[in-house]
């Protein structure tokens, strides 16, 4: 039996990388998905690959905009009849040391990651609490646990997602809505593979499993948190790191 039969999920940053891998895992397990992304063309191409409009739909969404997120979230029940899972995954990096980072670079990352996740959690929760069910999965990062050089903005935002999610989990538990967090470590992607070899080697040396993770390995954990397999879990943080900084 599939794990998400008849369920509908909204995924921000769903056009590529971890977001797309999560969408693929969900569709494989019987869900229908709405992909929100700044790049509408990429989101539409991804939705087509996932099976077309009967299974996946795309929408342009700037997660820093409350109205964009509201339109995205409400498009799910309009298209497929329900909103059962919300995955707040959209993100950017603007890395620089604290000495050289601009205020705009700090604000951009906080707005996309932390405020964007707040918009998604808040808007989805308003729908889910009325139906007395739902699962929200927020994507943090190992950077939010340990802090990374050159990422005072990113580390702050990702740590904030954990605290915000725990608070939301407490507010929503009695409404039947669960909120959980994933903290990925070094996951193979176009962004991480573009980093200098020296930086890559340093990170690899910190991983007991001696390899980078794959997007579908994060997607498997998102699937677990979205499904009934985790029905008695809320406010939890699951690390997908190969043991790095355990």
From TrEMBL:
GO biological process: fatty acid elongation
The enzyme's E.C. designation: 1.1.1.100
InterPro entries per record: KR_dom, NAD(P)-bd_dom_sf, Sc_DH/Rdtase_CS, SDR_fam
Gene3D superfamilies membership: NAD(P)-binding Rossmann-like Domain
Alphabetical keyword list: Oxidoreductase
Domain Ketoreductase: 7-190
Single GO MF annotation: 3-oxoacyl-[acyl-carrier-protein] reductase (NADPH) activity
Keyword Hydrolase: no
Pfam families associated with the record: adh_short_C2
Similarity comment: family membership: Belongs to the short-chain dehydrogenases/reductases (SDR) family.
Name listed for the protein in its UniProt record: 3-oxoacyl-ACP reductase FabG
Organism: Actinomadura rudentiformis
